[in-house]
Structures are given as structure tokens and as C-alpha cells.
Amino acid sequence: MFYESIKVLDCTIRDGGLVNKHDFSLEFVQRLYQLLNAAGVDYMEVGYKNSPGIFDPKEYGPWKFCDDDLLWRLKESLENPKIKLAVMADVGRINLDAIKPASESPYEMVRIASYVKNIDKGIDLVNTFSNLGYETTLNIMAVSRDRGPELDEALDQVEKECKADVLYLVDSFGNFYQEDIDECVNRYRRHTQKTLGYHGHNNQQLAFSNTIQAIIKRVDYLDCSVSGMGRGAGNCTTELLLGFLKNPKFDIRPVLDAITELFLPLREKFEWGYIIPQMITGALNLHPKDAIEVRKTEDKDNYRKFYERMMNMD
Fold this sequence. Notes:
The chain is of the alpha/beta class. It folds into 2 domains: 7-267, TIM Barrel (Alpha-Beta Barrel); 276-311, no CATH class. It has helices at 12-20, 26-39, 68-75, 119-131, 149-161, 178-191, 207-216, 238-244, 253-267, 276-283, 289-294, 303-311, and strands at 7-10, 43-48, 84-90, 109-114, 135-140, 166-171, 195-200, 221-224. An 8-stranded parallel β-barrel has the order 1-2-3-4-5-6-7-8, surrounded by 5 helices. Helix 3 links the parallel strand 2 (43-48) and strand 3.
């Protein structure tokens, strides 16, 4: 499907960093950066812009913090890149005094993640970065759990007060079906004229099909990750999405190289993607943290026991 307005954002290093505590080597990220640029991907999200005063650098890798010097080293590994760099900032976890204007920064886009209940703070943070000259997105998380009048009020507030270039619909728990995409996109459009984006998780093996449905609904910004690497069940895979988009600017071959060179060896160390515990939390509209934790226990393959425990969570 070929729409000129579509932008592809690869979030492998940011969302995938939740699998390995953001401990990718610089060489790994540089190589992925080069390959995604060759593939024609529009944005590469490389991690979080968190404050070292909140998270211990001894516990997390460098992409949890995305120091400017680190990102300059990444950017300098490629001459005249077309791909833009993005970082994510969470409300209350960033030292704004350390942020430089976009004209002095190695990254072009800042994505703000916010729940409906914190939408005031999310809007303020978006506007701060927008005023500094960055491209911005507001990613409203866990919409599958916030579909009451509070969401309508939040969307109205975003339309009136928020300077975000893109407003994201985020299926944090991998709970959505295609009809949910239709309903939510229609709902967003009743309240806002902003460009829309979609970020899905693959708990029920629907991240790709739901992304296609978002494209059909003319959602322009699409998130994906190489080999689906992301928290828990992961995301819509970059290779499937580029294979689907009938746009000559995209080339799937460098992504296949990335899988062979980088991600097959990584899969020997870390687990991500569709598994039964993640399916269970997705179907029950629950946070994936319990599915992640159960994989560390002796009962990791006792799926019925886990299902029955999750059934009693709500």
C-alpha cells in the first residue's frame, strides 16, 4: 500500500532495550543505524532521555540515557544520513536543564509517553520540546484500559493545548483487534485534527495486521522493530511492514541483513516475541510485566496455572 504521507519509525533500540536493560554496544547500534538508513526508514528511536539521577547507570546500558555525546558518535558513523534520530522522554524522568535546543542536538524528534491520567504533564513536556525546535509526538499509552469519557477529555485537551506534531494511539498491552483500531482512530479524529501514529504490541500476533488496519484508516506514522524486538511480545516487525508498503523508497534487504548479522545472535541470549504468557496478558488486557516475570520462574511453562492466576487479577 503506497501513501506518500506514511512515515516508518523503527523503535528497536528503545523498545528492544526493555529486553536487555538498554545494554547494546555502540557498534551494534551503529550498524543497525547504517542498515535502517539504507532501508529507507524515516526515523530510528534509539532509547530514553532519562536522567542518571533517577536511574542508576551501573544497572542500565547507555541507551537508557542517550547522552548527547553518545548520539553524536552514532550519527558520525554515517555520512549524510537521511534517517532521523528520535528519543523518548517520560514525564518526571528527565532533567530538562540538560536539554539543548534542537539546532545543537544530535536528535531531531522527541516522543513523550503519557497515560491519560497524566495528560497535563505530558502536554507540558511536549510543548517544552516543541518550543526548543524538536519534532514531537505525544504517545497516549494503554488506551485499551482508558476508553471512557476521560479519554475524550484528554483528546480535547490535546487538540486545544498540545503542540505535538503527531498524536499516537498506543496498544501497550497488545489487546486490540482490528475493530478496536477502527473505533479508536474514529474516536481520535472526532476530537483532533492532528496527524496520527500507531504503536502496537504482538501479544496476540496482531501487531502487523493492526498496523495494516491503521494504514487503511490513513494513520501516517507507523512504529515497528527489527525481528519484532520489544518489551515482552514485541512489536510489528520492520521486515513485514516494509514488505507490505508498496513504496519504492523502502528496501527490505538491509533489514534482512540486520536480522542475520545482529538479531539472530541476540536471540540466543534474550527472549522476546509471541509466547503463551504474553498471549494471556494481551487477551485479558493486562500489563505484560507478569508474563515477563513468570518466565524467570520454575513454573515458566505452566501456562494453565499462569492463566488461572491472571484471571483473578482483575
